[in-house]
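Hey L., structure's done. Input below.
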Amino acid sequence: MSAPIVLVPGFWLGAWAWDEVAVVLRADGHDVLALTLPGLESVDTDRSAIGLPDHVDAICEVVEAAGAPVVLAVHSGAGGAGYAASDRVPERIAALVYVDSGPATGALDPAFDGVELHLPSAEELAAEENLDGLTEEQLEEFRRRAVPEPGGILRAVPELTNDARLDVPSTAVCTGFSSDQYQAALREGYAWLGGFGELRDLTWVDLPTSHWPMWSRPQELAALLGDVARAAAPG
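Output:
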């Protein structure tokens, strides 16, 4: 028996990004739902009015509709929305997994003033992110299917008022950077990691690979999520 698993992708991605991980988890008997956040449905979507509350609402709606408290796995830039969801419905989240992500306590980029953020060029992406283990085919599919991120997500400060979120069992899966590097960045005061300094039940896990481990190490990531889901099952 295991808790249901909700998979939330990061910037520029839809539910499709989790396909390989979801297949492995379902084959192992887990109940899995991957979510496409508002504004990430299509390149043609109007993103001008989409903000962080819309992403939090979408996550909470799925979490509350599940038959039992869920394991919520959030990737990359979805960490702020995931943490805010745990503030709103902590009783519906059995465990939270941050996949190369963090529980943001402040805006990811308060100075960003655009309607949307496009996926960087191939050269910029290689300079900014860890691409270890990714194939050229995977990177090409990423670029082909990427959708601009709503600008309002970068500017927003998560609403955090419920201290019950601090007791949600949480796991930080460190892929593009090591857990030591994450903790050093936390001490430097990066807002996108802020919640790691206040959570009361936090486990650090190293899974060295790209910033997109659902593509570069899907089997290992699925196994980790499955273990969390079994541990989080009631009774």
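The CA atoms of residues 42 and 147 lie 6 Å apart. The radius of gyration is 16 Å.

-- N.
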